[in-house]
Amino acid sequence: MGRVLFVSAGPGAADLITLRGARALAQAEVVLFDALTDPALRELAPQARWLDVGKRGFCHSTKQTAINAALVREAKAHALVVRLKGGDASVFGRLEEELQALAEAGIGYEIVPGVTAAIAAAAQTGRPLTRRGAGRSVALTTAMTREGELQAAKSADTEVFYMAGQQLAALARRLLAAGWAPDAPVSVVSRAGCADALASEHEVATLGAASMLHRGRPTVVVVGAGAAPLGTAGAAVPDRASATGASPATAPERASDPGLGEYATLSPSQDLEPRGPEALAQTPNV
């Protein structure tokens, strides 16, 4: 009987994994990986057998019961199994079901934390999720319920919505109904933490304008204090969908590719490339 390590891969590029997570991969015999984990992470576990158990919204996905069964089966046959999850395993990662399956089978486990997409989005745009005096609370919310219903709320100064990228116009209507002001600032970041990350800024009332830019990309939507330009979190913010909202001296470069749309801004970390084991050893993110 072996054990399972739940390793959080981080939100995008391979070098956003923690040093502990990289070490776990180096020891793994089998890796069950999610759809959004960077393929470059395979370099950290060339000795392992990699099994794709990924899930994507509105796409073909591995059933959760099948993932649970595979975890138990592999842990019974191997000494060390890694369950590699994107972002942080404990944030919208269906972690509870998998832990319960292992507990029922008497299999031990360990959880290695990581960087969730909300944190990566804040880093990508240079907009802290919390602000002194204005942003004292943050809520991480999945916009879609188990029944497939889109929901929104106003439960914190900064509300971060996961898995809403394909329904931004509908989310705007839900936000207005939940009590958000039409001119409340909104930051939309797709593929946060990746080299091709895109960010756009809007007001709640004009959020639907981001739909085409971020279409088909994993997207995080930040609403409220954490989406406001620096120094303005306590004040109303005009719609700035075509700029980053940062000061001219520090604003990220506008995208020159016309195919990206007028709302696109290049990520400040656009030059990041997926890194292998050697780079991770030199510059660990822990």
Please tell me about this protein's structure.
- The protein is α/β, with parallel strands linked by helices.
- It is elongated and about 55 Å long.
- Strand 8 (185-190) and strand 9 form a beta hairpin.
- It has 6 helices and 11 strands.
- It has helices at residues 19-27, 64-77, 95-105, 117-125, 168-177, 277-282, and strands at residues 3-8, 30-33, 49-52, 80-85, 108-112, 138-142, 158-162, 185-190, 198-203, 219-224, 265-266.
- The longest helix has 14 residues, at 64-77.
- The chain has 2 domains: 3-115, 3-Layer(aba) Sandwich (Cobalt-precorrin-4 Transmethylase, domain 1); 117-266, 2-Layer Sandwich (Methyltransferase, Cobalt-precorrin-4 Transmethylase, Domain 2), CATH 3.30.950.
- Helix 2 crosses helix 3.
- The strands form 2 sheets. The chain has a 6-stranded mixed beta sheet, with helices on one face. The protein has a 5-stranded parallel beta sheet with strand order 3-2-4-1-5, sandwiched between helices.
- What strand line-up does the widest sheet have? 6-7-10-8-9-11
Principal-axes geometry comes out as elongated
The biggest beta sheet reads:
6 strands, mixed
Q: Say how many strands there are.
A: 11
Total of helices: 6
Low-confidence stretches: 236-286
- Cα Rg: 20 Å
CATH topology of the largest domain: Methyltransferase, Cobalt-precorrin-4 Transmethylase, Domain 2
